[in-house]
Amino acid sequence: MKFTNKEVLIFDLDGTLIDSVPDLALSINQMLKALNMSAFSTEVIRSWVGNGAEVLTKRALSGNIEINPELDPSFVTKALTIFLDFYEKNVCVDTSVYPHVKATLESLYSSGYRLMIVTNKPEQFVRPILEKLGLNNLFEIVVGGDSLPKRKPDPMQLEYVCDKLSVAPSKCLMIGDSKNDIFAATAANMESIGLTYGYNHGEDINTHGASLVLESFADILGSLEPTTVVAR
């Protein structure tokens, strides 16, 4: 299928544009070490990423993707503070851009599409990462996981972007790697692209109702019919 009349492209960040797991894993293990707890492999931590910093912290403290309901809230708060402090110091050390992402984004931007980021990552980390990876000037709006009262899979972040730009959801397209992205788009009456790589906790992205599923980020270019957007 091809999408028509799209003006605004909204991208998830972690697992969609960038692989941030190496730095997240390093910071989580530094947190666990500070709390005298056992560390985990990068690949185990990779399976926990995708629902924001607090959920990642809870999973690490639980030692499992299923969060221990008996975790002490004050202990979680302490651990989260330690994690975020470590992550701030290591926010873009080994984080990398996925193949074809930069060239595709630059092509979309040059074609006149308005590019946004909606992520569950705390907002304070997003622009520094984009800046270091040479992507910052491409995005008009960044909405983080703590920017609003609710985050994906709730549609609030996407609705905020539509309101901010005075653009109907039908003119927007959500692009992400996890069910949170797809569910948020569906709830916002927005079409979506699901990407097969990234962080979806081992689940098949095809099962979550995306309008289109792609294996390569570069294929986004071929999924868009020419529109009235004005090339820059």
TrEMBL record:
Catalytic activity: 2-phosphoglycolate + H2O = glycolate + phosphate
Keywords assigned: Carbohydrate metabolism, Hydrolase, Magnesium, Metal-binding
Pfam families linked to this entry: HAD_2 (PF13419)
Entry EC no(s): 3.1.3.18
Keyword Metal-binding attached: yes
Active site: 12
SUPFAM superfamilies: HAD-like
Pathway as given in its UniProt record: Organic acid metabolism; glycolate biosynthesis; glycolate from 2-phosphoglycolate: step 1/1
One function term, GO molecular function aspect: phosphoglycolate phosphatase activity
InterPro entries reported for this sequence: HAD-like_hydrolase_sf, HAD-like_sf, HAD-SF_hydro_IA, HAD-SF_hydro_IIIA, HAD_2, HAD_sf, PGP-like_dom2, PGPase_prok
Cofactor dependency: Mg(2+)
Binding site for Mg(2+): 12, 14, 177
Statement: the UniProt record of this protein carries the keyword Magnesium: yes
Family the UniProt entry places it in: Belongs to the HAD-like hydrolase superfamily. CbbY/CbbZ/Gph/YieH family.
Function: Specifically catalyzes the dephosphorylation of 2-phosphoglycolate. Is involved in the dissimilation of the intracellular 2-phosphoglycolate formed during the DNA repair of 3'-phosphoglycolate ends, a major class of DNA lesions induced by oxidative stress.
Protein name: Phosphoglycolate phosphatase
Source organism of this protein record: Psychrosphaera algicola
Taxonomic classification: Bacteria, Pseudomonadati, Pseudomonadota, Gammaproteobacteria, Alteromonadales
